[in-house]
Design brief:
about 75% helix, about 260 residues, Serine Threonine Protein Phosphatase 5, Tetratricopeptide repeat, mainly alpha
Length: about 260
């Protein structure tokens, strides 16, 4: 079945190989992804940043191991933001997680293999319910892969975001005491990871969206004003590619705009 198209195409998201290289550092401030060496992988990233997620996955997979990261990211972004079918979304996320496990075996020093494993499992857990996912041992896998990511790439801002979400969601669902004793979750760690993410990637809309959610999960209405300010800043961000546009739209939706 064809993937739903990206609904906000923009000329500013279209790149040549040369312009993508110039923009690369800013576009990948969140995931610390190195500039690819293979032309086929570069072309897959061009498709990704334009919002052509299906083509990005296809071309990434065709490029072999070097294209796994762009294929996994494209699949995850489309599944989370644009896939209407819950079944298809869960299947896609599970497929990415399985690919990443194979990638980890072959590329144990590649932080992307661990980050997209954690991301896919974390989003899958949200679909089936965090409590059910914890019972299946998914939470521990997410935490381990995110910690491995930061061990390999300490400046991986998106891994800090995801760890902040991990700690906040565990505490929200299980309480601070059980969350700490059973899953190593900590309110202070959640806040520290969100703050680290914004320090590393100050323009990140998604870091602000997730930080806002985290504050409400951890402290409820007491942090509503701060959470709303974060969402407003995210909603006002100028997106540089398709995924950032989807992040901005998510912020607007959270605000009810």
């Amino acid at each position: 079945m064809a993937w739903a198209p990206f609904p906000y195409p923009a000329a500013g998201f279209l790149h040549t190989r040369e312009s993508l290289k110039d923009a690369w550092r800013g576009l990948h401030a969140g995931d610390a992804e190195p500039w690819p060496r293979k032309t086929g992988v570069i072309d897959a990233w061009i498709a990704f940043h334009a919002g052509e997620f299906d083509r990005a996955e296809t071309e990434g997979m065709a490029a072999g191991p070097a294209g796994q990261t762009v294929a996994n990211k494209a699949s995850c972004m489309h599944a989370v933001y644009l896939e209407a079918s819950r079944t298809a979304k869960c299947d896609r996320l599970q497929a990415v997680a399985e690919r990443c496990e194979r990638q980890q075996a072959g590329e144990p020093d590649n932080p992307a293999a661990f980050y997209w494993h954690a991301y896919a499992l974390g989003r899958y857990a949200q679909e089936i319910s965090v409590i059910r996912a914890l019972a299946q041992g998914i939470g521990g896998k997410v935490k381990a892969s995110l910690e491995a990511t930061l061990g390999l790439a300490p400046r991986h801002a998106d891994a800090h975001v995801a760890l902040g979400v991990y700690h906040a969601e565990i505490i929200d669902k299980t309480g601070s005491v059980l969350g700490r004793l059973s899953h190593g979750a900590s309110r202070d760690d959640a806040i520290a990871h969100f703050m680290a993410a914004l320090e590393l990637n100050p323009r990140s809309a998604i870091a602000r969206v997730e930080y806002a959610r985290g504050l409400l999960m951890l402290d409820g209405h007491a942090r509503q004003e701060e959470a709303t300010a974060l969402l407003r800043a995210a909603a006002a961000a100028e997106p540089r590619d398709a995924t950032e546009r989807l992040d901005v739209e998510r912020a607007r939706k959270e605000l009810g705009e």
